[in-house]
# Entry
Amino acid sequence: MAKRAKPVFFEIALNVLGYKDKEENEWVALALEMDLRGYGSTWEEALSELNDLVFAQIHFAHFKRRPEMIFRPADPVWFHLFADSRRAKLESEQGKSDYLTGGLSIPDPHVIAQSQGDFTPTNV
# Structure
């Protein structure tokens, strides 16, 4: 019986764009690299929900043995808004923007490792 190689994990931070949805009157936290959105009455609640969604997506892709299901970028307009918001913040301490920017780490490697099985690339 062949011995399985130990999984290798990398730290990856997702770029997160936050904004207030004026129609729904709630905060949205958008993970740009995964096109996932968390919602909440506060920015912190939206980030917390987004964190749960990121973990669920990774876990589901792991379960299906389809790592390509993890990353699906948001529409380019969101990346441009993120870059513009970061630039405005850097250029001025008083930089006014309707958007917040931040990062969200993909769940710690030990959390992912607790999932059953290993990722196996597929040709689907």
